[in-house]
Input
Amino acid sequence: MSAFPAIVYLDESGIWVAECPGIPGCMSQGPSREAALANLEAVLSGCLAVRAECGMLPSVEIDPVVLVGREVVLLEVDGEDS
Output
């Protein structure tokens, strides 16, 4: 099992956004914090599968500035590719 940091926040239009800053393009949204994180878990599995198929590392280094002032959650993912 691997864990990936995700940030979750309420955007200016009232939609919850969740994203994994260590995986470019890995983000989702939802009407609630919980929904955004649940959606991101599904997206994360797909992103990791594609990265593995392409021979890429599971994630890239995260600039710590991206995390400042944000709620950070660790998402755990099962699977051989993670």
User: Anything to note?
Assistant: The mean pLDDT is 92. The longest strand covers residues 2-10. The CA atoms of residues 45 and 51 lie 10 Å apart. The chain has one domain: 2-77.
